[in-house]
Structure formats: structure tokens, C-alpha cells
Amino acid sequence: MGKSFEEIIAPFKDKKGGIIEAFHALQKEYNFIPQEALKETARIFRIPEAEAYGIATFYTHFSIEKRGKYIIRMCESAPCHVAGADKVLKALESYLGIKAGETTPDGKFTLELCECVGQCQATPVITINGEPELNVTPEKIPQILSKYE
Amino acid sequence: MKGEKRIILEYADKINPEKAEDYIKVGGYKGLEKARRMKPKKIIEEVKKSNLRGRGGAGFNTGMKWSFIPENAPIKYVVCNLDEGEPGTYKDRIICEKNAQALLEGMAICATAIGAEKGYIYCRGEYPYIVKLLNNAIKSAKEIGALEDFDIEVRMGAGAYVCGEETALIESIEGQRGEPRFKPPFPGVEGLWGMPTVVNNVETFACLPYILVNGAEWFASIGAPNYPGTKILTLTGDINNPTYFEVPTDYLLSDVIYELGGGIKSGRELKAVQVGGSSGAFIPKKNIDTPIDFDSMTKIGASLGSGAVFVLDETRDIVDIATRIAKFFKHESCGKCNPCREGTFRMYEMMTRINKGLGKPEDIENILVLSRVMQKASLCGLGQAAPIPIETSIKHFKSDYMAKLN
Ligand SMILES: Cc1cc2nc3c(=O)[nH]c(=O)nc-3n(C[C@H](O)[C@H](O)[C@H](O)COP(=O)(O)O)c2cc1C
Ligand code: SF4
Ligand code: FES
């Protein structure tokens, strides 16, 4: 493994309110915030662990559970909903063999539900590690995911 | 497109939003130059006179907001709200992608008017590519000296709709849980790190360069007199042209749908339209001949909000859509106050029951009572607005509900 937790967190330590940036940096490296990293963040920012935990768990983008290499998020907000988001979700679940909220056994994909990601010109929308995929249909799923095999 | 009036988006796709030089070629940073030669009070007067009202949803007079900043405070902040979490809305992203420098210039004009040295842009976590774009745009503007010593820092949110509420946004920049504060004190008095802070929406800031260059009277004469200027709308749902448009604020909602929007998909009839994102009211077909400006929308019991226009055709199941919206608010409630934490939960519970065909007439009665409680007793705009789409869907489409009752 590359950098230590401390090396990832340190650049933000003197930034006012930098803890959220530090969490972003940790997630970029690990796709979630490992418990030891959370402890380390609390120590470096000089706040109680419980408070660091409270901050991390407030935001839906941060996860303290281990997640897959690729995080697929399915938008279910109203515009995506009427464009057939539930069909896309079913297709994703059956293709990956997991339910929303779960990770594939090989640790490759995590499937999550989310609200509007601001790409509503081309609904339904999913994002994969933050990259939007537009006008998604059940038929397109294998081809989209093959890019990440 | 015909019928549009482009001010902010006039040079969309013709200039590189990251390059300050490109922007200067089309007249950019002239407004800021002008502002720097004016007395701060005069700038605020000019903005007030233009009658520019906030584009972030509450429609507050921008110059007025700035005038609340105490002159003698040692430190003041300018904060740009780029949280844009309202479902169906992406206009602030479009402004950044097409004309990011106008946003930076607008923030610098505000800084000059209130005497701030530092600005923050709070960008939602769903837009990491916009964070990159903005950082490049700031670098370019800094390099040619356009911003002088005004510093702008971009901070990224992490997926919480409530962080669009200005005090929650401030909490989040401070590195806390994004829970709204009690008001007063308002941010203008005690904002970021306890200092007087102006929070404005991206679109509000982006109007300012044009107001400074062309004058308050010019701006005040465009569109609806009570809410002048242009508004960028984003169209979603059953519409032929699901895209964005910039229109004068006296543009009719019906023209948005049938002219710019190209009408309803598959030649169907319109059933309802929801303006302003998921927190907006449902508007029945009979009310669509209304200008989109803030006050006209309020008059028909709706709200302009973010300017999202969500179109539903005659085949759509309003109860199902309202249930989906109830889930959105249950998910996004921050939990700080009881009427909203418990209210959004119960609202979703009752709506799910009705939507599954298991509801009783009492459920509708209870929803209407809960709706009143939430609107009156919730701490912030999230809990206050959450029941509005549900309530208006019952008001205008009661028969759809009755048909689903057990
Ligand atoms: C739940 C909630 C979400 C909000 N989301 C946004 C948002 O995404 N963008 C925004 O500009 N304003 C949002 N607002 C309004 C802000 O609190 C604030 O009024 C606005 O940023 C002020 O800018 P303006 O005067 O330029 O409109 C939201 C308000 C509430 C209650
Ligand atoms: S109204 Fe909802 S979102 Fe706002 S403070 Fe209360 S619980 Fe939080
Ligand atoms: S509603 Fe799904 S991306 Fe906006």
C-alpha cells in the first residue's frame, strides 16, 4: 500500500474546516474510510473520535463500511424515476447478482441508490466512481459495466 | 433558440470557461473594473436598484442582503452556493461549464462592495469535474491579475441536500455536520466562523458583471418588473426538448413547455408540471399560463425555486411520483428538528401505504394535518417545503388518490 493514513490526512490539517477534505482524500485512496483512518483523522484534527464519526456518517458520500473498487450509484430522484430508474436498478441487481447497498463477492462493484446527481438532461442516470452515464437502459448495462471488468 | 434571451449564456460554447483571456475578449471583467472605481455603498445601491433577487430559491433582494453586512467588521466572507441538490436542477453546473468567469467576477464585485478578501465556492460532491474546472478558472483569473488580491477557494460537499441551506452550508465549510443553524443571527451578521457572510447562488453572482456594465436600469427593465432579468430553466420529464434555456422572467410557463420545450412527448396531453425541483408544488394544467417569475409563481401557490421544470403527461401516476418525492425528503432530512425528522418519516410511510393500495381515507386527512405542522414548525426550509408537493398533489389530483384507497 502507498501512503499512510497520516500522510493522506496531513495536508489538510491546518486548513480551517479541512476535515471534510481529508475524508475526501481518504476515500479517494480506499473508496471508504477505514476505522483506523477515522481514528487517525480525529487525532490529527484534535477532536473526539465520536465527533469525527458523526461528521463522516452525516454525509452520504462517505462510507465507513468497506466498499468495492467501483461504486455504482443509481439516481432515483423523480425525473430519473419517471424515466424508468426502477427497471435499470432491477437490471443492475440481476446483472451483478447483488441488491442495492451490497458489494459483489469479488469486491469489484458496490451498488448504491442516490438522489439527483445533476445530469437530468439525459435520464435515467447512474454514476460509476463519480462519472455519469447518461440515458441508461437495462439493455446497455452489460456494455457499460464491461468497461470496468 | 428563438424566444430565449441569453445574458449569462450568450457566449456558451464560444469561449473556454477556464480561460480568463477568453472571457475578457467578450467584455469580461469590465464590471469589476467599474466596481473598483466606485464607492462600496454605491455598488450596493446599484445592485439594489437593479432589483436583482436571489436565484437560489428564496428570491431575496441581493443588494439589500449585502447592505446588512456591518461595515466595520474586520473580516467578511463571500460564499457561493453551488450545492444544487434540487432534483431536476443543473443550471448552476451549466453556468460553470459555459461561463465560470462571470461567477468569479460576480463574487469579486460582491467582495469589493462589502470589503471581503476571501471567498468560498461550496460545490456539491456530485460535481468533482466542476471543482477541477473552477480551480483552473480561478488560476487563470489570478494569473492575469483580474481578481487582484481577492482569493477564492473551492470546497466540495459530500452528498447532503440540506447543505444547500445557507447555514448548513456554512457548517459544512467549517468541517461540521451540515445541520442548519437557528436564525437569527443571519449569516450577514454571524456567518462563516462567526463573521459577517454573504451567501448567494451561482446564478445571482453571474448576473452581477452584466448589471455593473450595462447599468441597474437596463437590468430592471428586462422581464417581470418585480423579479427582473433572465432565469435559466432546466426541463425534465415528458418533454420533447429536455434541455436548459435562459428566458426573460416574464416568459410564460405554457411557452416554456410548448414553445421551447417542444411540447409533450408522444403527442400526449399535459397532466401536471412541478416547478422548482422536488420541493416545488404541483401545478395543474389550468394554471400554466403564468409567467415564471417569483411572485407570479407564488400567486398560483407554486414557487420558482431553482427553475427546474418537471413535466408529467396524462398517463403519469401522481401518487407514485409524490411517494418517490416523500422518500427523497425522508432521506435528506438532517434530523435536527422533530417535525421534519419524524414528519418526513411518517409522510413517506403513509404515502407508501396509499401508493400500494392499502391506504384509508384517514391517511389523507392525517397527511394534510401533518403537512400543516411541518410547514409551521420545522426549523429550516427543508422540513417546511417537504409536504408541499404532497399537499398540492392531493389538492389538484384528489381523484387519483381516491382511486388508490383501500
Ligand atoms: C433545504 C434547502 C436547500 C437549498 N438548496 C440551495 C441550493 O442548492 N442552492 C442555492 O443557491 N440555494 C439553496 N437554498 C437557499 C439558500 O438557503 C439561500 O437562500 C441561497 O443560497 C441564497 O442565495 P440567493 O439569495 O442568491 O438566492 C436552499 C435552501 C434550503 C432550505
Ligand atoms: S427542517 Fe429537517 S432538514 Fe431542516 S433542520 Fe429540521 S430536521 Fe434538519
Ligand atoms: S434526477 Fe436523476 S440525475 Fe437529476
Description of the structure:
The complex is a heterodimer of chains A (149) and B (406). By secondary structure, chain A is an alpha+beta fold. Chain A folds into two domains: 5-58; 70-146, Glutaredoxin. Chain A contains seven helices and four strands. In chain A, strands 2-1-3-4 form a four-stranded mixed β-sheet, with helices on one face. In chain A, helix 3 packs across helix 4. Chain A is elongated, with a radius of gyration of 17 Å. The two termini of chain A are 22 Å apart. The model of chain A has no long low-confidence stretch (mean pLDDT 96). The radius of gyration of chain B is 21 Å and the shape is globular. Chain B contains 17 helices and eleven strands. By secondary structure, chain B is of the alpha/beta class. Helix content of chain B is 45%, strand content 14%. In chain B, the strands form three sheets. Chain B has a five-stranded mixed β-sheet with strand order 8-7-11-9-10. At the A-B interface, helix 2, helix 4 and helix 5 of A face strand 7, strand 11 and helix 12 of B. The structure holds flavin mononucleotide (FMN), iron/sulfur cluster (SF4) and FE2/S2 (inorganic) cluster. FE2/S2 (inorganic) cluster is lined by residues 75, 77, 79-80, 116-120, 123, 125 of chain A. FE2/S2 (inorganic) cluster binds at residues 75, 77, 79-80, 116-120, 123, 125 of chain A.
